[in-house]
Amino acid sequence: MPQFQLALLLGMTVALGPLALDAYLPAFPGISGDLGVPHGDVGLTLSVYVGALGLAQLVGGPLSDRYGRQLILLAGLAVFAAAALMVGKAGSLQEMMAWRVVQGIGGAFCAVSVPAIVRDQFRGAEAARLFGLIGLIMFVAPAAAPSIGTLFLAISVWPAIFVFLAGYALLVGILLHTFLFRRLPAKPRAKTPISTLLTNYLMVVRHPVAMRFIGLQALAFSAMLVFITHASFIYQDWFGLSSTAFSLLFAANVVVMAVVNVANRRLLLRYPSAVLLRVAVMVQACAIAALVACSLVGAPVWAVAGCIIIGVGCMGAIAPNNIANTLEFFPTLGGTAAALLGATQFTFSGGVSALSTVVSNHTLTPIVLVMAACSVLAVILVQGAPAAMRRELDREAEAATLAAVADRPSP
After folding, report:
1. What's the pLDDT score for residue 370?
2. Which segments in the chain show pLDDT lower than 50?
3. Could you please report the per-residue DSSP string of 115-126?
4. What is the pTM of this model?
5. Which residues contact 65 (CB under 8 A, 6 or more apart)?
6. How far, in Å, are 23, 24, 140, 143, 353 from residue 148 at the CA level?
7. Buried b / exposed e across 93-128, counting CB within 10 Å, b at 16+?
8. pLDDT by residue (tens digit) across 65-74?
């Protein structure tokens, strides 16, 4: 099917994640008041969702390899929708956190299926470009999510946001069943027995270049998630901005991500994705370093917001290049590789997000220092990534050639 149609449907699916993360951020003060907990504690509902979103991918990825993308993806949408409705009915923080875990499991089955579907159909720079197009379409979700939440708060109460999420998941399921899976060429299901799933994961874990990219993804995403977790506190509490101003500043992050994404798609026609990845990680590190300096000197909101927008915007190039580079080495285990990538990314970042909540002490500097620590580690990992990518691809190409020669019949 045409790439744009495929990207549109998969982008709508991936948008579930940003919507579930960002749409209820403006409602944090209301949730805090209704549940009788401090504002900062509401951020734990985000952390547990992200943690579940990561760990459940370890199950969803191999299942999608074995039983097909359609079954696992549609089942994930159903679980996500049902849990969203229950989150809206929660009467305590603990109950809300429990249903957010269930919602994260459903979201994980959806999230892990999308990169596997792309890897089934494309590879290399073409896959990176498609991931970029999916990301560009998906960026509408995080840009609009806080505004959607603010709109629902204006006409109703915060549980209405989760009713909207449930309805959106059901709509995506109908569209995927009708327009995607009936037209998408079927991929032969893996015949690997369930008992060897651990072996499949070990194949990915033992691949040093792939694990370098998985580590990079986890660290870069963690820096962004720490900001998302504390975005409401930073802008609404620390700087005293209104919910409307908060929504506009949050949308600015996504606009820059989209611009960077478009530029990255064009640059992929001339430069290897690993090179573009290294540049994006370095720019993100510089922006976060400037953010730390702004925090230490008590800079105004426009300076802090500018550094955040640049740092978060770099994910428009980091994410698509990193995902494509990781999956490049696993043509038959796309679901398993995507699961490990997603599990590492979301579980690690969920832990870092929770840690940042503990150490923040309701001040800005500890938050940005956690972001900086993640960024510095990402810079260390990205050094040498392009050369490592080239060496591994050359080695695999040589091995494939030797295997083809060995299998050739003798004259």
Report:
1. 95
2. 402, 405
3. HHHHHHH--HHH
4. 0.72
5. 116, 189, 190, 192, 200, 333, 334, 335, 336
6. 6, 9, 11, 9, 24
7. beebbbbbbbbbbbbbbbbbbbbbbbbbbbbebebb
8. 778 888 999 9
